[in-house]
Task: structure prediction
Amino acid sequence: MEVRNCRSCGRLFNYMGGAPLCPACQKKLEEKFQEVKAFLEENPNSSVETVAEELDVSVKQIRQWIREERLSLSVAGADGIVCETCGKPIRTGRFCEKCKNNMANALAESIHKPEPPQETERDKNRMRFLK
Result:
């Protein structure tokens, strides 16, 4: 276990992974997220800047929640959220659907390697030379 200072308040805490925040600050951040989520449910077409001003949350934090797919914009690209691969405007996350599919297919192809050719009966009886 590792002891760290909280990024927000500076207190020492046992770091278990994730954001370097103490449990109290993590709880406050989660409460702020719930406020933002409720605000967006009531005002679905609000911009990131408007939400940040109304609820005293940083634009950076709201964009992080969007990238984590915890929040979703009502219109793709309205606040400059774009796919990290191709630059296409997106509503949530880091990648557009096309790029996600391409990455998934590439991963699947790399996992499924072709099987070696089967040895025939004739091959088994063939004499082999060792080097």
Q: What stands out?
A: The longest strand covers residues 2-5. The chain has five helices and two strands.
